[in-house]
Amino acid sequence: LQTGKMRYVRVSRFKGKVLVDIREFCVDKEGDMKLGRKGITLSAEQWNWLKEIIPHIDAAVKIF
Q1: Cβ(40)–Cβ(22) under 8 Å?
Q2: Do the domain assignments include residue 1?
Q3: Closest CA to 42 of 14, 1, 63
Q4: Does the residue 23 lie in any domain?
């Protein structure tokens, strides 16, 4: 899922574990998209925890 010009959310599996990547991509010299350095990879457990605390984050954002 594209979330910005070169930012994507991607669900993948690595060594049997489900991962959620929120990451910037870059284009190499050949024109292929490659994972960039900027981003975060969350386990399914971390992703579920983040979803649970979204209301608290939203409340904090409203204060600012």
Answers
A1: yes
A2: no
A3: 14
A4: yes
